[in-house]
Every structure is written in structure tokens, then in C-alpha cells.
Amino acid sequence: MKFLHTSDWHLGRQFHNVSLLDDQQAVLEQLISYLENNPVDALVIAGDIYDRSVPPTSAIELMNHFVEKVCGEMKLPVIIIPGNHDGAQRLGFAASQMKSSGLHIIANFDDMLTPVVINSDIGEVAFYGMPYNDPELVRHYTKQPAKDHDQAHQLLLEKIREQFKPQQKNVLLSHCFVDGAIESESERPLSIGGSDRVSHEHFVEFDYVALGHLHQPQKKGEEYIRYSGSLMKYSFSEQHQAKGMTLVELDQNGFQSATHIPLTAPHQMRIIEGELATLIEQGKTDPNSHDYILARLMDKHAILDPMEKLRKVYPNVLHLEKPGMLIGVDQQMGKARLARGELDMFKDFFLEAKQEPLNSQQEQAVSEIISKLTRQQEA
Amino acid sequence: MKFLHTSDWHLGRQFHNVSLLDDQQAVLEQLISYLENNPVDALVIAGDIYDRSVPPTSAIELMNHFVEKVCGEMKLPVIIIPGNHDGAQRLGFAASQMKSSGLHIIANFDDMLTPVVINSDIGEVAFYGMPYNDPELVRHYTKQPAKDHDQAHQLLLEKIREQFKPQQKNVLLSHCFVDGAIESESERPLSIGGSDRVSHEHFVEFDYVALGHLHQPQKKGEEYIRYSGSLMKYSFSEQHQAKGMTLVELDQNGFQSATHIPLTAPHQMRIIEGELATLIEQGKTDPNSHDYILARLMDKHAILDPMEKLRKVYPNVLHLEKPGMLIGVDQQMGKARLARGELDMFKDFFLEAKQEPLNSQQEQAVSEIISKLTRQQEA
């Protein structure tokens, strides 16, 4: 019995004001293509389908197209829980009416207690989905104290375990932060101060736990308690993370294996570092020059419009950093100080703009203006 | 063969900053209760389920509850088209996955050409839904010129008629403005300058046409081309409109009858008119004092905080008009002029606040202040 585990699609996400929808569409097409060539018994998505509770129409249409293809044409059961980015009620509209078509959106506590049962070569496998909920909602539902996410999970899992049937294998979908797992920059914290951490111990009775929320693929505590990671990279700091989905195999004894299946977005997110001239030279022959780029310029002098220059070879430079221009961070002021003074900066600028250096008379004049402005600022 | 025709629910609508959701819920419960006692073969909703393309979560939950009850428990087919207030793509998410449960949301042109076929005692009845579209979208879809709503309807109806099957009766759902029909204040115009009008002639080949958009129940051109009107009143000017739904009966020959089934919101919307003291007296014994009230005060003198006074007997006064205080409207300025001068107004106010009249010294002082202010204003 095989199923695909994926999570954190964040459809409709913007990255430095660029829509990632075309990349997301391309990655979903790879996913569909994988399914066509490698039949499985189900696809599970452990939350954060959309990036916002009210997603843009274009993201809804992309998801609709995916569902049409996978549930409608390929007749593959798809099991979904909302994550902290999704709007559970919006995502869950008419969920009961979708079930018979194989689209299972588990958006509330009642649905949580009725697993999606898949009949397979190893018998029945029950998929329980725990829709993302903060402890407040769990207190309201269970009428029991739950001061943090860990206690909330414990209470909900007790209710789920009561539903276990001896002849069934049990899979759980949960969108949460398992204690000790590795964060990425593109996740939105569930709460402040560590009260969002959940112990992996709650999960050990399941045959597999399909986790969502953290964007780096990883296991936690046991081989069968896993994050698939996000559909694609959502921050430059994820440049070296392997993105994709997890192919899970169960057998008569339960968990058998988990395999990472890579997915590759057309534009990778990566950081390039060096002096502008070097980067431009390198860009001319870079086969992936269309990637989404964060450029760290190491030049120690000011440059006129470096973004425009760099975009001639790397058209999708989304952000520039100029560490070469900084000499450490002024802790007290919380501000970075410039390594070069104003006069030197202006001389750089003038040379670049006019193609000739300042003459001594001009330098004198600029110097006086800067002194005057500096005195005014300090007064 | 019987079905219920309704439209223009506008779930989530606000009226003078009051949420109408509780009233809408109560009316939907009446609708469900009617269905429980009077079985029909289908329920059709001709657009404007929600009041906005991004409805509030509470409105989505109310609609979800309704669908659960009617499609899920009662197993009654429900056929829906989006109106000009709805967001077709949002409403239509996973529509294909809902069909097998009897929930048919016809949100795009492709679905328009595949009718929902209901098998009944008179044989097959095909329900075609024309989701609301402006002419621009119809031009794009048909690749033919359509300068206005009338031509757009004509083009779409040609495509629909090509699907007609000899053994089927044909019902159409459309959200549009049929030429010559009566408007209400609470509708949002489809376009400006009359280009939204559609001829009823396009519809004559159907056995019944379930229209939405106009809020007053009415037929147009033929007995079988009808607006059910809105679920409830959505403006004070609708105070005398009968609200409800239309029970349609078809027989072997097609259309047989249409019957208005009334629905009553817990709070009616109505206008009361008279002097404040009279209205307060009348309110003390008014059995419907909780209605949503527009009060027209006919008093000719200024009154301190009339809203607060009136709300003691009519707690849901939502708006006040003071025609007694106006002597016609200054056409040139577009402003209403007050019938009483500033000094008289202040005397009214002082008497009411202090329970004693201005003495002559006070009157002199106030008069001087008013003169001074008036001179300043005119200068």
C-alpha cells in the first residue's frame, strides 16, 4: 500500500512582489506526471494549501484544476487538512458533498473522528485528519483545559484513538510544530514563546504521521513521523533544501518505508555573492540565469543602479544586499553604518555617472555641502 | 413534477450596519420546514447566494449548514448559478466533486452546456444554468460580438438550445434584468444606461425560466418566465413586497402552474411616520415593535436625541428622517433647508434639556452669538 504525502503548497504566495503561481502550477504538473507514472492509493496534503485564508481567485482556480485532474480524471482519493494559513470554513464549504467523489477535506472536529478508509492490498487503512486548531478552539470543543498546542494535541489524539479499529492501519495528518524539528524562514509561527511545540510522543501509536507546517523535509523521533516539506522553496534561506514529496509504503506490519520524491520549480531561489562585475560576467554563461536571485554585492564602493545592471544578465534578481558597503551593525542604534563616507560615495557616483572624476574645485564644493548638512542633522 | 424556485439570498448582507444573518437563518429554516412538509423534485437558486464575492465566514457556514441539511439529509437536488454579487470561481470550487451528492453549482460556460437532468413522474427534466456573466466574458467565450447583455444572452441561449433533447422538458436558470420588469432599491445595477436589459423573447422555448436579480416576485412576458424575488426584504422601499419562493409545477405539456410560497423574516422592514410622541405611544402596544424601522418624524420643532427616545419602544430603529423639519429641497445647492431658524432650534433644545425656557437675557446672548457666527460664515 502506497500513498504520497505532501504539504505546505501556499498557492497564491507572493515573493518579493512576484507571484509564484506559474512556478506552483509547473510543480503541480510534475506531481500529476509522477502520479500518472507511479500509481498510488491516495494523496494526502497536510495543510497550507493556500497562503491566505482568503486566497486570490487564481489560486483557487489552480487548486480546482488540480482536483479536477487528480480526483475527477485519475479517480485518486485526495485527503486534505487545513493548515494555519488556510481558512478552515472557507476551504471546508460543501466538504460532505465532495466525499463521494474522493475529495476529502477534513475541516472540523466532527469530521476528524470519521477517518477516510482506503481499501488496499494490505486491507483497510484509516486516514485521520486533525485540522489545524489553536488551543483556544480545542478547549472549546473538548471542554477540557489545554494551555498549549501540546496539550491540545493530546486531547484531540485521545478522541481519535478511541476510533481505532483492530483490523485497520492508522495514518494521521497533522499541521503542527513537533518539538526539536528544524524551522525555515518562510513559516509563520503558530504562537509566540515556544508554546506551539508538540511532543512526537503523542504520535507513536500511528503507523504513519503525515506532518505539515515546517518547510524542510525531515523525520522526528521515529522514521514514520515525518514532514514532507513545502512544495517549493519559499525563502532564499531554503536554497539548499531538497523540495518534493514523500512516498510512503505500508505493509502488513505497518510502516515500511518513506522515500523523498524531488519536485523542481522552474525558477530556483538562490543567493549569489561577489563583486558586481564578477557576477555579471558569471551571469552571461549561467544556464539558470532566470532563477529568483538574492545578490550579495561585495563591492566596497558605491555603484549606480546595480539592480538594473544585474537584471540584464539575471532578469529575476529580487533582492540586493550590499555587505561590502557595511562595517558591522551599530548595535545601539540598530542601524548599519556605511564603510565609506559621504564624500567618497559621491565621488564614486560622479565618476560612474559622468565618466570622469571630480576635480578639486568640485570636491571642495561638495565637501562644504556635506559638512553643512551634517551640522544641520546633528543640531 | 414540482420544484422550488428561489433567488437573491444575499447571505451575509448588512443593513444600516446590522447583520441580517439571523433573519436569513430563520427564513432558511422556514424554507427547510416547507420542503419537509411538501416534497418537491428539486430546489433551484437563480443567483446571488452571497452578498459579496468574498462572503464573511459566517455566511459560508450558514450556506454550508443549509446544503448539509437539504442535499445531505433530505437528498434533494439543489441547482445553483452564481449571480452578479457572487464570485463564480470561489463559489464553483470543486463543483464537479459535489455533483454526485446532488449539489450542482453551475459556475462556468462548460457546465452550462451539460444540464442537470432530473427523472420525474413526467419523464426527464433538463435544468440548464446560465452563470451570471457580463458581455465581455461572453464575447471572449463565443468569439462573437456581443455589445450588450441582450446579445450576450442570445449567443449563450443558442448554444444551450443546441443541447435540447426531444424527450426532455427544459428549465433555464438565469440571473439577468428582463426588459420592462420592476426594479427595487436593493439591487446592484448590472451596467449603466439600460445596456443590461434582456428581452424575454429569448426565453420562450423553455418550459420554465427561473430568473434571479430583481427582488420583487414577478412574471415577465409569459406565465412561465418568472422572478421568485429575494429571500427577504433588503430595503425599506420593499416594505409592501411579498417575499418568498415560487413553487413550479410541470406536466406532460410543460408549464402547468407557479405559486408564490411566502417566507417571513422575524424582523420586517417598514416605515413608520408621525410625530415622535405619537410614534412612541403607538410603539408601546405595537406587537411587531422589534421590526427594522425607518421612522419619519413629522415634528416641526427640534428634538433632543429622538433616536434614543424612539428606541425605547422600537429597539431596531435603523434610520431617522425628519421631513417635518424641512421646507423643500434647495435645488441649486442640493441641500435641504431647515424650516426653523437657529435661535428657535436652540430654544427647543434648551427647553428640552433644562425643562425651562430661555429668559430674555439668555435669548439676547444666544442671538448675538448666532449673528456673529453667521457673519463669520458669510465673510
UniProtKB/TrEMBL annotation, chains A, B:
* An example molecular function term from Gene Ontology annotations: 3'-5' exonuclease activity
* Superkingdom assignment: Bacteria
InterPro entries hit by this protein: Calcineurin-like_PHP, DNA_Repair-Maintenance_Comp, Metallo-depent_PP-like, Mre11_N, SbcD, SbcD_C
For this protein, the record's CDD domains field holds: MPP_Mre11_N
Every copy of the Nuclease SbcCD subunit D C-terminal domain together lies at: 266-351
Q: Where does the Calcineurin-like phosphoesterase domain start and stop, copy by copy?
A: 1-217
Name a single GO biological process: DNA replication
The record's note on quaternary structure and interaction partners says:
Heterodimer of SbcC and SbcD.
Q: What does this protein do?
A: SbcCD cleaves DNA hairpin structures. These structures can inhibit DNA replication and are intermediates in certain DNA recombination reactions. The complex acts as a 3'->5' double strand exonuclease that can open hairpins. It also has a 5' single-strand endonuclease activity.
| NCBIfam families assigned to the protein according to its UniProt record, in alphabetical order | sbcd
User: What protein is this chain from?
Assistant: Nuclease SbcCD subunit D
The gene name on file is: sbcD
